[in-house]
Structures are given as C-alpha cells and as structure tokens.
Write a structure and sequence with these properties.
Elements: E1 5-16, E2 19-27, E3 30-35, E4 44-48, E5 52-53, E6 72-75, E7 78-81, E8 83-85, E9 109-110, H1 117-120, E10 123-126, E11 137-138, H2 143-148, E12 153-159, E13 163-170, E14 173-177, E15 181-183, H3 190-197, H4 200-205, E16 211-219, E17 232-241, E18 246-247, H5 250-259, E19 267-273, H6 278-285, E20 299-304, E21 309-310, E22 313-314, E23 317-320, H7 322-328
Parallel strand pairs: 11-23
Antiparallel strand pairs: 1-2, 1-4, 2-3, 4-8, 5-9, 6-7, 10-15, 12-19, 12-20, 13-14, 13-16, 16-17, 17-18, 20-23, 21-22
Bound molecules: adenosine monophosphate (AMP) and manganese (II) ion.
C-alpha cells in the first residue's frame, strides 16, 4: 500500500489574507492550513494525505463529523489538502526519520468509494497474481522523482471518475475483475455486461497471447454518472503483457486498443516534456472533461511514453484537480 501518513518537513509557512490564527504550510508538494504557532519552518511532522481514514483516538476527534476521513477543504479561501500532526501522536518507541511511513503504525486506511450493487458482483477469487492492480501515486509525494525525470517525454490522459476494471485472457481463460477481486460471470454485473456488449473476450482471443487490458467503467449508476452517459461503457488506460509481466509502451497500447476498436481514456497530450514544478502540473489538471465539457475533470494521469520503473514501482502518477475535489467531496 502507498504511504498515506509519513514523517515530513514543513518547508514553508505563509500568512493567509484576513486570517490571524492560521497559516498556509507546504509539505512535499502539498499545500495545507495549519494553526499558527504549532509548527516552525523545518520542523518534522506527521503528514497525513487526503483520503486517509483515521482510527478513533482523542487526537482525531475533530474529524468525527467527517467520518474520520481527511478531505480537501477550503479555509478562508485557501485550499487545504491533508493534515499535519505533531510527532507526539507517534508511539514513544518509534525512531523518527524523515520520510518514514507511519501509515500502519497509526492504523490509517485508505478511503474507497462504496461500490453500488450492480457493480459489486459475486467474488470468484482474489485479484489474479499475474496482473498488477490498477493504482496511481499522487504527484504531491513525488518531488524527487519529478526532478529526476524532468524533460522526459510523457503522455497525459484524463483521469475518469468511474470504477476500475481488468479484463484478461490467460492460457485461454477469460477473466473479469473489479479493483480488488475477480468476478463470477453474471448477467446483472456491469463489468461483465460491458465485456459482453463490446465482445472483449473474442477481441482478446484474436491477439493470440496472454494479455490484460485495464480501464475505467463509466456511465449510469457509477459515481453519479458525472459524464451524463446513456448506459455504461469502459475507457481503457493500460495493456499488460502477462507472459513477460510488463505494461505495453504507449504507442503499442494505443495501436492495440485501436486495432481492437476499443475506446481509450481521453488523451490531453501525446508528447509532453515533464516539468518538475507541482503547481504547474496541478494547473494542467484543472479544466472540463473531454467527455463532457460542463463536467469538471477529476484530474490527469501522466506517464512516460516508454514505460519506466523506479522506487515507486511503475513511473505513473495522478494529478487531481483540486476544484473537482471541492465540488464533489462533500456531496
Ligand atoms: P484513484 O481513483 O484516486 O484511486 O486513482 C487511481 C485509479 O484511477 C486507477 O486505479 C484507475 O481505476 C483510475 N483511472 C481513471 N482514469 C485513469 C487514467 N486515465 N489512467 C490511469 N488510471 C485511471
Ligand atoms: Mn477513482
């Protein structure tokens, strides 16, 4: 699992106009509001990311009304993402070190949106071990990685807000998986219905190899159908070669879905030299959806044209549109 909580330094503290008791802090690539006097620049703190669910503890009591989930909020006009806690919330025995992952120590879990009935389905088994699950790291924790890959040619796709799906063909066997499990075939299940409608099994079969394609299921009944679609469909963002245990590079992925006449996630940039400034990337994430311009896009996903792996695993990350979070988080 990714780091939701870690020990990080406060790199800047700035005043917020018309607010006397709070300050704007920078931690990693995040901006958030802290109480005046609680921290100084250079202090280590426990930084907890948005979408963390905190356990019941007196120190976390102020989050009770929000179901103990850390969300994007706006305070006195300032967008605030995440929370800084003092090191005193850690067990005394812990050896303090910058960057240390304290997600498990603190009993923090990641918020996952509830899956509606037509999507949940009946579990056939766990997620296949021969395919990676879909996931994206948040750009805000990648300060060093961005510097390393600055200038690298990347492609940028729109991040759609639906439900993750994996279709695979392995040793002649076709499988359908939601984010964390494989699903029993059924006429009621949306992941299966879309597979049948688009003829995905036959299409994968025509490739004559062990392959998985992964995408986002969108449409009626899914994440409040933000794109106002009729029915349900899928937009693909990955092709994975099971036999070689590797993702296809962008051009091969694109050719594969086009040849199979399957839809891809919308592409914003096909040759984007990576910039390391996180605020610039956040600005790039703001805008309307390419599926429906009146809908704010959830964000973007950035990846090198040639696949790369690094300490974080696959080099691929998401930049969430802060305006999308403000609009939808509390509804
Ligand atoms: P999150 O939805 O915040 O958990 O972010 C990761 C998820 O975004 C992945 O597991 C995918 O299901 C989903 N996703 C939606 N659009 C894209 C895209 N264009 N590229 C990669 N992942 C995407
Ligand atoms: Mn999502």
């Amino acid at each position: 699992m990714r780091k939701l909580a870690s020990l990080q330094r406060i790199t800047t503290l700035e005043p917020i106009p018309n607010a006397d008791s709070i300050l704007k802090a920078t931690v990693l690539g995040w901006q958030l509001v802290v109480k005046k006097g609680e921290f100084s620049v250079g202090d280590l703190c426990v930084y907890v990311e948005i979408d963390s669910i905190l356990p019941e503890r007196p120190e976390f009591e102020f989050l009770r009304a929000r179901s103990n989930r850390i969300r994007t909020v706006r305070l006195r006009g300032q967008i605030s993402q995440g929370v800084c806690f003092p090191l005193s919330i850690l067990p005394d025995t812990l050896e303090v070190e910058e960057g240390l992952d304290v997600t498990t120590v603190l009993g923090i879990e990641k918020y996952e949106p509830p899956i509606p009935a037509q999507l949940s389905g009946v579990m056939k088994g766990g997620f296949p071990s021969f395919i990676p699950k879909t996931d994206e790291t948040r750009v805000q924790i990648l300060v060093d990685l961005l510097q390393k890959y600055e200038g690298e040619h990347c492609f940028v796709t729109e991040k759609l807000d639906g439900s993750s799906v994996t279709y695979y063909l392995n040793e002649g066997e076709f499988g359908v998986c939601s984010r964390n499990m494989e699903l029993e075939k059924s006429e009621d299940n949306s992941f299966w219905k879309v597979a049948v409608n688009l003829g995905i099994e036959a299409k994968l079969n025509s490739l004559g190899k062990n392959i998985a394609i992964q995408g986002e299921l969108i449409g009626e009944g899914i994440q409040r159908n933000k794109y106002k679609l009729k029915g349900q469909t899928v937009r693909f963002f990955n092709a994975f070669d099971i036999s070689n245990y590797e993702y296809l590079n962008y051009s091969d992925f694109r050719a594969l879905v086009e040849n199979l006449e399957l839809p891809m996630v919308p592409v914003l940039e096909e040759r984007f030299p990576l910039v390391s400034d996180i605020n610039t990337l956040v600005e790039l994430s703001v805008g309307g959806s390419l599926l429906r311009k009146e809908t704010r896009r959830e964000g973007i996903v950035i990846r090198p044209l040639k696949e790369k792996t690094d300490q974080i695993g696959r080099v691929s990350f998401k930049v969430i549109n802060p305006k999308f979070l403000l609009k939808y988080e509390d509804a």
